[in-house]
Amino acid sequence: MRRVLNNSCILRTLVMFVSMLCLPSAQAIVVYDNFGPGMSFDISAGQGFGSLSDAEYGLSFTPIDSGYLSYLTVAVSSYSGEGEAIFTLYDDNLGEPGSVLETFNLSNLPAFGSTFTPQTITATGTTYLNSGQPYWLIASQPNYPDTCVWQNSTVAMDTLIAFRDNQLPEWWPQMHEQQWALRVETSEVPVTTGPVDLNGTIKTPDGTDICAMVLASGQYRFSCNPVGVFSFSDLPRDNNGTVKRQMYADGFFPKIDILSGTTEEAVVLTRSGPCPSYNPGYDPAVVPGSAGKRVNISGNVLSQNSQTPICAMALANGQFNFSCDGSGSYSLNIPLDNNGQFKLQVYADGFAPTIQTFDEFQVINDVRMARAVECQ
Q1: Can you give the CATH number for the domain in which 317 is found?
Q2: What is the pLDDT of residues 274-286, one digit of tens each?
């Protein structure tokens, strides 16, 4: 029997076919892979982490395509102890691990030296990886003094690694002739569009309101009038559809959140201990006659006593810019306050806020920042 399709049936079929073509693909895309053929790796050698030094080790990887992180595949085994490991994904901060993006826990690890299938970790699907931008995957051990091993890749290639011992704040990046087995997969998902509103309160754990600086999408607010309250409207999103909200307050640990859309919430900041000071003291002069006078101020934002530049926000008397050109430099033209002075406030992800007061006679100032983990 000969079948005849009428025009409406053909049209419906064509529309369904075109609609299927237009749907975003949920298939995972491999954007980084150093496993050998058939997901092979070296079962007899690798990098130990944990142990008596409580060391953390990891490597830098650069995705070849952009997308939302879907899966991480690693080859990790247990040398001694409970067979548990933690993998933490960081963004890159001038060639070393920067801010935490996601954390993953593994348990029931196979014994070192045995034949096993690599572990595949399912990500949240909300972390966007940009093509050509470096990231870090760091392995650590939750149970002192247990030891785990991140197995070597069978692909010989120099790579940038980083490590630190005893939870010290400083990372030690260096080139290494051996990679550790890792595959990274992303997927394409619809990116949410439209402006974002952020509102809320900032308090201590016991409910005391905090005057803090809140930074989001290149805009800032102080939760100081009234104390503890902040509000943003119509914020633009980053390229990945999210908004990065950063909160800084003197005497508290920074709080950084990646938000997917409009949010209203009560945020609790954790009080820090005293921070070491890397800056010389300065006693500014009181010169009321210079009130309102505009001066040019400049300097570099550096990590601790090193010459390592920091990407930070420098704020002084209502003017601000970012030291993110790779040199750590900032430069502002500002008005002096009623005392002929200016308050220089510097905020950076992973560092304690640095706040100093200067006068028109001290306008060139390098700012050295303590890492937040030093303020225990």
Answers
A1: 2.60.40.1120
A2: 899 999 999 999 9
Enter the tokens of residue 7. 């025009």
Contact between residue 83 and residue 76 where contact means Cβ atoms under 8 Å apart: no
Amino acid symbol at 209: D
If one counts the domains in the chain, the total is 3
Q: Are 155 and 34 in contact (CB under 8 A)?
A: yes
Q: How far is CA 59 from CA 149, 173, 179, in A?
A: 14, 9, 8
Domain boundary among 236, 268, 300: 268
Task: Give the global pTM.
Answer: 0.50
- Cβ proximity of 247 and 269 under 8 Å: yes
Answer whether 154's CB lies under 8 Å from 75's CB: no
Is 60 exceeded by the pLDDT of residue 340? yes
The continuous run of DSSP H or E covering 16 comes out as: helix 7-22
Name which of 168, 159, 92 is nearest 130 in CA terms: 92
Burial 71-86 (b: 16+ CB within 10 A, else e): bbbbbbbbbbbebbbb
Predicted confidence (pLDDT) at residue 180 exceeds the cutoff of 90: yes
Range of the domain at 60: 29-187
The span from the CA of 36 to the CA of 47, in Å, is 17
Q: What per-residue confidence (pLDDT) applies to 257? A: 87
- Is pLDDT at 215 greater than 90 in this prediction? yes
Closest CA to 46 of 105, 111, 112: 112
